[in-house]
Specification:
Length: about 325
């Protein structure tokens, strides 16, 4: 969907919770040659995995305390302000730059781009970041126009603007390289993409215990569920320590074969109760599938699709199929 532009990949935050090592390996063999991480520790985790012709960009740039790691790394910093530009200009090695086009998060302001320090850099990618690409709004074209006018003063090898949602805004947003993250991992930032993006992450949890609750029986901390009839309940080994946060209390859903198994009561740190009336054959040791369609799970929990992925804890076995 990036057209003639190369598709890079944001693999920061442990590849959005999927596991950065396995994810990077797979994206590399799918042809990805630009990886974006947040900091130098994340860069060091993938440096030895990627081919010599592959770029790693560190989005948070270089603080003074990063200089030692940065100068001994093959990753490039994304320089975000004039202080970082000055710090890097004495190093005489390639970098990327982030230009602020109105998000006002990280980035060099347009007025500073003409400085001699920026002119002296060896810039691979000059990029900016869209604040509202998941919405139809004026800010998208404003940022596009601001980007186009500010890069006329910048000597970079390549230009880049679009994240996942930005790719769906059309060819004008593509430039030389795109930087999807969320959509690589099954996230759907714009409705229009829903038929093109498939779910990637399918959490499952094992049943530790099955029990019968009589009508009027209460479940879990603070008795947030009371049975209106006799029912079969299973307790799963999963909880908010695994990123299944308390917003799923009385609203999340598991499945077994075709049967729906609603979450009942409050999510605990390591345990969840589900109603297994639709699959009464379930027993200790069986596995239930969590409904982790990101759009739906986001509505169930009040969490964003980003939070649903990056929150996935380290107790899961990550099994690639
Ligand atoms: C995280 C990030 C991305 C990826 O964004 P998605 O919305 O996940 O596609 C791209 N660019 C920058 C600068 C980022 O911080």
């Amino acid at each position: 969907m990036s057209g003639p532009a190369d598709a890079g990949a944001a693999v920061k935050a442990n590849a959005y919770g999927l596991g950065v090592i396995e994810t990077t390996r797979r994206l590399q063999s799918a042809g990805c040659r630009d990886f974006f991480v947040a900091n130098w520790r994340e860069a060091s985790e993938i440096e030895s995995l990627v081919d010599a012709d592959t770029n790693i960009s560190v989005l948070n740039g270089v603080r003074p305390e990063d200089m030692k790691a940065a100068t001994s790394s093959r990753a490039k910093p994304v320089l975000n302000n004039i202080e970082q530009v000055k710090r890097w200009s004495v190093i005489n090695r390639p970098c990327d730059i982030m230009i602020n086009t109105g998000m006002n998060r990280l980035g060099i302001d347009a007025a500073d781009l003409a400085s001699a320090d920026v002119g002296a850099l060896s810039i691979d990618i000059a990029m900016s970041h869209l604040a509202s690409a998941d919405e139809d709004c004026q800010q998208n074209s404003d940022q596009l126009n601001e980007f186009i006018s500010s890069i006329s003063a910048v000597a970079a090898k390549r230009f880049s603007l679009a994240n996942s949602a930005g790719i769906a805004l059309g060819t004008k947003y593509q430039f030389d390289c795109t930087r999807p993250g969320l959509s690589l991992y099954g996230g759907v930032p714009r409705n229009k993409l829903s038929r093109k993006i498939r779910q990637v992450v399918f959490p499952q949890a094992q049943i530790l215990q099955v029990r019968e609750i009589k009508s009027g029986g209460k479940i879990g901390y603070n008795a947030k569920y009371e049975a209106s009839h006799d029912m079969q309940v299973a307790i799963l080994a999963m909880g908010y320590a695994d990123g299944y946060l308390r917003g799923f209390s009385n609203s999340g859903l598991f499945r077994y074969e075709e049967g729906d198994l609603p979450v009942i009561g409050r999510i605990s740190m390591d345990l969840i109760a589900i109603d297994i009336s639709s699959a009464p054959q379930l027993k200790e040791g069986d596995w239930a599938s969590c409904d982790y369609d990101l759009v739906r799970a986001s509505k169930q929990s009040g969490l964003s699709q980003y939070e649903l992925l990056t929150g996935l804890g380290n107790r899961y076995d990550r099994i690639w199929v």
